[in-house]
Amino acid sequence: MDTEFDAYTTFTIGVLFLLVGKMLNKRVRLLREFNIPEPVTGGLLAALIGLAAYLTAGIEFTFDLDARDGLILYFFTGIGLNASLSKLRAGGVRLIILTVICVGYIFVQNYLSVSLADATGLKPVSGLLCGSVSLVGGHGTTIAWAPTFINQYGIANAMEMGIACATAGLVLSSIMGGPIARGLIRVFRLTPNTDRHIDFGVMYGDKQEKKIDYFDVLGCWFIMNLCIALGSGLDEILESFGIMLPTFVSCLALAIVATNTVPPLLRRWNMNVRWPNDSDSLGLISDISLGSFLVMSLMSLHLWALVDLAGPILIILAAQFVLAVIITTVVVFPLMGRDYEAAVVAAGFGGISLGATPIAIANMQAVTERYGAAHKAFIIVPLVSAFIIDIANAGTIKLFLHWFG
């Protein structure tokens, strides 16, 4: 029996479980100790309730996620508005290094999945559905590529296999990044930035009240809406030229351009307009948008699909999890500088490698809420995961299909 929730009700339930997640993280020390993101706590709790309803009463909850898809545009627009040239220059070398690591990781991830698929009796090409198609790409990439695997390579259950792997990856990545960062910070005795103005959220134990002005929030909201409207228009223009990118990428790019061009013009024209970069208002809107997006994404997961995963697929997923942990600790952390910022990037890479960009940001947010700010990490990771990953992943998937198809 299906129980459907419209967009407004879905959003309301999402906000409820975001509040539940925040309260649980405040009360349960273990969740804070291992840097489990608050939206992950609430979202997985909601998903478990949905699983219990399905297993005990045969009730399947279906959520209208239209509101969720709009929230992610606000979050990435906020990232772009904070990306000043000075911050981009400061993260320049690390940005290039992380880009190279991520592109190389996609190749290794796919080679591992194809090899294990062949070794366990599956079609080698089907291993890609347990590789970057579902793990780095997530549910959206899986849905986009599944017809190709069905029609051209005869894998009838490609959609089910890919969706199940993407679901497993989302769960694994949401509980992986924070504990890894915690371990690195403790083992290497890393000292976080003393700056208590973190990019998103509020640090645990921070008694300082944030004073947010009404006009600051309204102005910030207007500028974000303007960037989203123009970014959506840019997305349509790119599509007309055959360039297909997620809408949030266009919004992110436009916000970066705006925050580095508009404020100097406003100063030149002596216009007293408050630009929202690095403001508490921008942080608040971005935090609520990301948290609500993640809760709605997780609570809509059909966890019972994981029960149907066959032995070979479970073997591949287990190997992918081990690979992600090794690459994060042995490659990402050392090459990113072995400092606190590197540990926060490592938490983000946990989301990139098995889940999605929002999970990566939530992992990093959970770490900074406990230890302190890491401004470079919040510029580097979103830029790489938003701009580079989708393009590199699409090219790599096509290459592996040519090799093993």
From TrEMBL:
Taxonomic superkingdom: Bacteria
Pfam families assigned: Glt_symporter
Keyword Transmembrane annotated: yes
Membrane topology: Multi-pass membrane protein
GO biological process: L-glutamate transmembrane transport
Keyword terms of this UniProt record: Amino-acid transport, Cell membrane, Ion transport, Membrane, Sodium, Sodium transport, Symport, Transmembrane, Transmembrane helix, Transport
Coiled coil region boundaries: none
InterPro entries in alphabetical order: GltS
One GO molecular-function entry: glutamate:sodium symporter activity
Function: Catalyzes the sodium-dependent transport of glutamate.
HAMAP family: GltS (MF_02062)
Similarity comment: Belongs to the glutamate:Na(+) symporter (ESS) (TC 2.A.27) family.
Protein's name in the database: Sodium/glutamate symporter
Organism from which the protein derives: Ruficoccus amylovorans
